[in-house]
# Entry
Amino acid sequence: MGKPQSITISATPQQVFARYEAVESWPQWDPEVHAVSLPEGLLVGARGWLKPRKGPRSGIVVTEVTHGQSFTVESPLPLAKLRFHHRIVATAEGCTTTHWLSYGGPLGFLVALTAGRAIAATLPQTLAGLKAECEGTAPASAP
# Structure
């Protein structure tokens, strides 16, 4: 499992989760997402694709959703699985949102050592973009 990255957002968990549910808007606030398609929406079993800013377009499947609290998207790779976890916890200031990666399959350890490290390094920028989107402020850096 990758090191979780968190940020405090001055918005309710429901407001943050609504940004996640608006899948087509992810590229607007996540500088690492070039394009994404999830026609069924953020529902368990929904399948689509994600094109990162760097790298090839990859298939994705939603494997877990707890509305207003968490969701997990998995990208199946040859002999490995890359999972993107998202969790929202209510706080007195609004909420704390956490993103992290986990890996599965026989070659999951190899994904963790290669692409996983590069992806994990982008999590703070993704969270900053989400915070800016939810709070209606300018993002820290342009996509």
About this structure: The chain has four helices and seven strands. The first strand starts at residue 5 and ends at 9. The chain has a mean pLDDT of 93.
